[in-house]
Known about the structure:
Blueprint: H1 20-29, H2 33-45, H3 49-53, E1 60-63, E2 66-72, E3 78-83, H4 85-96, E4 109-113, E5 119-121, H5 124-138, H6 146-154
Antiparallel strand pairs: 1-2, 2-3, 4-5
Helix pairs in contact: 1-2, 1-5, 2-4, 2-6
Amino acid sequence: MKAKPQLSKRPRPAKDVLSRDEIDQLEDTLPTERDRLIVRVFGDCSLRLDELCSLRATDISRSGRQAHLRVEGKGGHMRDVPMGPNLLRRLDRHIARRPAQRSSDHIFLSFRRQPSGQFDALTNGGVYQVVKDAVARAGIPKRTYPHLLRHSWMT
């Protein structure tokens, strides 16, 4: 049996990430609190796109001065993601101001009404559009997408 030669691995290029100032800039350019919160939750909690879209008001847990988002990640694994008190206050205000005619208890709802008059949960495409709009408004030249905000948090 002959040994196979091992090929050397090529180094992976470093991922382009956003600085904290660039994330703040993205948030500041958006016109609605819902959209600003989407960027802030991505930037502060490192959620995946699906995790953000599926967030419900009941996923916020409080214990004393600590607050967590309970999210279901890849493979159905549940994890608690800590969040700061400022973000918690903003989410609480946002949830309290949601329209009464909603068909779901998701935190982030679409602005469009269904023919029934109700608002549905924001879709992945809707969140992607929010991030794309923020990048255009902020004039950030980097290719920016929702998962890049997750990478930026980790870096």
